[in-house]
Design goal:
The chain contains three helices and no strands. It is mostly helical. It starts with 6 loop residues before the first helix and ends with a helix.
Length: 145
């Protein structure tokens, strides 16, 4: 087994930091969307708005899990670097391995969240397409009358 140096876990810092930034941006956009959906639901409670709220709850939980796993990964990287620094090489290798596994889990949850988001957008787009078709039919009928 090759010896783990301080630079190896340090390389993960930039990657994990960028991922956490992306997760935070996603979370902030969801927070804004929650406010908009709440206002829309209070104005006129519709079934589609309720479904969007439920979908958003799932996505928020997944985002929280992604952030938690990413933060844990970063924490384990720091612990691994500290263990290398004090000379506990073997333990640092296992801790760094755990950090990598946590990062993989975070990315896996992120992939699942993206799938749910895509499904939500497809539903929303199908509603728009249905409305457009109705408008087209109505304008066709009017022209032929």
């Amino acid at each position: 087994m090759q010896e783990l140096t301080l630079t190896t876990p340090a390389l993960l810092f930039s990657a994990v930091s960028l991922i956490l930034l992306a997760y935070t941006n996603r979370f902030l956009s969801y927070a804004q969307l929650v406010r908009q959906l709440r206002d829309r639901y209070l104005d006129s409670p519709e079934e589609i708005t309720e479904a969007q709220i439920e979908n958003l709850k799932k996505r928020l939980n997944l985002t929280r899990m992604m952030q938690g796993l990413g933060i844990a990964s970063l924490f384990f990287c720091v612990v691994s670097m500290f263990l290398i620094y004090i000379g506990l090489q073997l333990i640092s290798v296992y801790i760094f391995g755990a950090a990598l596994l946590l990062l993989i889990a975070s990315l896996g949850v992120s992939f699942r969240e993206i799938q749910i988001s895509t499904q939500s957008l497809k539903i929303y787009l199908s509603i728009i397409e249905t409305e457009e078709k109705k408008k087209s039919k109505n304008s066709f009928k009017r022209r032929n009358l």
